[in-house]
Write a structure and sequence with these properties.
Blueprint lengths: L1 E3 L11 E3 L8 H13 L2 E6 L8 E3 L12 E3 L1 E6 L4 E6 L5 H6 L8
Parallel strand pairs: 2-7
Antiparallel strand pairs: 1-3, 3-6, 4-5, 6-7
GO cellular component, one term: cytosol
Protein name: Proteasome assembly chaperone 2
Keywords: Chaperone
């Protein structure tokens, strides 16, 4: 389930979605990290699901003391409206049982 950061869900009609392929070496996630930090994209929400290994860490895109205390979780969504671009950053592997039973749903409500 998608959980927006503020108020209601954003209108992403016509946006291009980038998402990593979770694999050995984390190359996909590192490429998405580079896109997010280079374009200075803003976090618009996250996905709450039981199908990803739970994790939490420091804000990887911190630029000041104020935002360095923010937390980062396993599936976050970033947006750049000026380029009609939305990015899904997945930071943990899928739980195999959920992959095959279909509990992994990315729906925006």
């Amino acid at each position: 389930m998608f959980v927006p950061c503020e108020g209601g869900g954003p209108d992403l009609q016509g946006f291009t979605l980038l998402m990593p392929a979770v694999s050995v070496g984390n190359v996909g996630q590192l490429a998405i990290d580079l896109v997010i930090s280079t374009l200075r994209m803003t976090k618009i929400g996250y996905f709450y699901t039981d199908c990803l290994v739970p994790m939490v860490g420091n804000n990887p895109y911190a630029t000041s003391n104020e935002n360095s205390v923010e937390l980062s979780i396993n599936a976050e969504v970033y947006s750049l409206p000026s380029k009609k671009l939305v990015v899904l950053q997945i930071r943990s592997p899928f739980i195999k049982v959920c992959m095959f039973t279909g509990c992994f749903e990315f729906t925006i409500q």
